[in-house]
Design a protein that fits this description.
Two copies of one chain form a homodimer. The first copy, chain A, is mostly helical and about 140 residues long. Chain A has six helices and three strands. The first copy, chain A, has helices spanning about 5, 10-20, 25-35, 40-55, 75-90, 95-110, and strands at about 25, 55-60, 65-70. The first copy, chain A, has a three-stranded antiparallel sheet. In chain A, a hairpin with a 2-residue loop joins strand 2 (about 55-60) and strand 3. In chain A, helix 3 packs across helix 4. Chains A and B meet through helix 1, helix 2, helix 5 and helix 6 of A and helix 1, helix 2, helix 5 and helix 6 of B. Chain B binds a DNA duplex (30 and 30 nucleotides) through helix 3 and helix 4.
DNA sequence: CTCTTATATAAGCGTTGACTTTTATAAGCG
DNA sequence: CGCTTATAAAAGTCAACGCTTATATAAGAG
């Protein structure tokens, strides 16, 4: 399943938003989603399965808990796909900054960098607000 | 319909790719898509309708032709949604480029850096590079 | 071992979505 | 005008999706 398909569902997008702050247990995710969307535990579990199978998350067992985390690769692909449209809204950016940023980003992505690069993401625990407000039928 | 839903279909993504080079008539799009996906003219027309109705394209009539063009707003929204995940793969961008790019791109969001907690090792060899080639069932 | 908690799977069902073929609309052209 | 080209809409079909209830698995607590 292509990442875009998985991202088509608001529940799954919301789950990823929740995971963007760091890993979460299935249970924690489930209670938030249940509260926000009013769906059952198995429904959430099925969404988690889709996320797993589309490579958007990884899971790690800890006792009886399952800890889900964002797996960035497919999102990076989506980001790359969007690249060709950035010109549509970045046209007005001044040339120097754009060139710099773009050049750097691309150069980096085109190169292997797995060697000693054991550093981890850092999350700004800014606001928790959802940006996405949708209802489902 | 949310942009992400519309983007879930490979035909529609392909149409947008074709439009990323500039506006195209329905006919031109249709013949490419027919060739690549083997679907009928009405099928393409229906995809065009979805793209129109989700705001991803605009249309302009010229005689009997319809000229489609990318309408960037929803894509920009998608891009904004992705923003929160960029940290997962851009963590190592050096400061200058990052500041320039980010500051410019989302000046209004008032982003700040932090040296936060650590999870989410992402360790994958580079791969891919190709855009999109999929089959449909 | 039994009961409970955490999570996933199975089976079934209604709805949606992506097609198809057929038909409509409307502009150009002889 | 009638014929053709360009495009959309209508109606029907079939599979995929998202949900539900019911059930399985597996770890922990008592």
């Amino acid at each position: 399943m292509h990442a875009f398909d998985a991202l088509g569902d608001p529940v799954r997008r919301r789950i990823l938003e929740l995971l963007s702050h760091g890993e979460q247990t299935s249970g924690a995710l489930t209670s938030v989603i249940r509260a926000e969307f009013g769906i059952s535990q198995p429904a959430v579990s099925q969404h988690l399965r889709v996320l797993r199978e589309s490579g958007l998350t990884s899971v790690r067992a800890e006792g009886t808990r399952r800890l889900y985390a964002v797996e960035p690769a497919p999102l990076r692909e989506v980001d790359a796909w969007l690249e060709r449209f950035r010109g549509f809204w970045e046209q007005r950016l001044d040339a120097l900054g754009t060139e710099l940023a773009r050049g750097k980003r691309e150069r980096r992505l085109g190169r292997r960098h797995d060697g000693g690069d054991a550093h981890h993401a850092s999350h700004h625990a800014a606001h928790d607000g959802r940006t996405d407000e949708e209802e489902r039928p």
